[in-house]
Amino acid sequence: MRTAEEEIVSSCPQCGVEIRTDRRFTTWCAACEWNVDPQGPGEEKRGPAAVRRRIAQHYGELLFTELRAGNSGGRSVSGLFAYAIALTVHGLTCILAAVGVWGLIAGWGGLGMVFGLFFLALAWSLRPRLNRLSDDDRVLLRDEAPELYALVDEVAAVLGTRSVDAVVVDVEANASVTHLGLRRRLLTLGLPLWEVLSPQQRIALLGHELGHFTHGDTRHGMVVGTACRSLSTWLYYVRPMPNPNVVQAVTNLACVPLRLLVTAVMALLDLLTARASQRGEYLADGAAARTGSTEGAVGLMDRLMVTDSIATTLQRETNSRRLRRTGRGGEQNADGLWEALVAHLDSVPESECERRRRVGALRGHSVDASHPPTHLRRRLLLDGTPVPAAVTADSVRAERIAGELADVRATLARDVVRDGYGDL
Ligand SMILES: [Zn+2]
Ligand SMILES: [Zn+2]
Q1: Which residue among 23, 54, 66, 79 is buried most deeply as judged by most CB within 10 Å?
Q2: Which of 300, 230, 308 has its CA nearest to residue 265?
């Protein structure tokens, strides 16, 4: 909702066409792209994170071309190779455990037992650690949120997969799915993202997340992910000791090859899974469209494009609320936090969304290194045949779900106002 005072009309200094903009946002020209990206690409150009980004970007573009041509972008050998490496890492842990058992038996009653126990302890620390819920997680159980679970179940049924066993709500502008232990499934919903989506976009989001289960992304993630955790433990064991004496200096030096090896294997795993994870995201977007309609899925992409606005709005809101301190113990201050967030995002004019899309295309915006560029995800959806929604939610249903989320909304708003919203 734009008021007249917020709109300014000027002409483009570069090509002269009329520009209408909202004074709260950047003035730019859609015709010649003058001032489309005043900040310019700010992110680091070097270092492992930048390399990861570039690799992700590269596969994101490659797969976009393949998938648009109607090619399924098939499973690649690199994914299998990543599996093999991950299994080797866990195999090594098994060998260490076996050595430990052998040491214990062979050296029973003697010094060999110390040797055996050492290896058993080492293997135990390197074991595959499966995901668990932590005490800080805000878990919504099935009986606490029957309507939300019914919606998730319906989305799962359309996609031909099993539904989730637990839903965690957090304050990220994101959502994700993962395994809990070996069999159970967890869906994590970031409330700031959920709140700014329309009912149909929410269904598209659920479709995207559950779509990851149908393509085996999470299973692959579990095998490779646990191997990465074991490798991190290895890296911790062989890290250099600070301010070493002579013996420690020699140990540090002796650990260099092992350190390099572990680092290299981790980098290799990352590289090998990059393509598969980009593919998984595109396919999950297809699932988003099938369940929540192409329109819903595209709308979701548009919201993802402005997730940094979510962060800055929450930061601004929490700062001003903390300054005002109206309520008792700061409690009242959290009222209306989510409503303020939605109001701000709804007030972003289409021209600013379009500018973000173009900046995203120029700089390569993506949710993170595991996701393809957002503008390509959007284009792939728009280039395909539009599909209608397989799952819908009327206002009664949407309100019932909102009611189920009321408690967690209030709790998380209080948390955010109390702790501040982290810099993203
Ligand atoms: Zn212009
Ligand atoms: Zn995803």
Answers
A1: 79
A2: 230
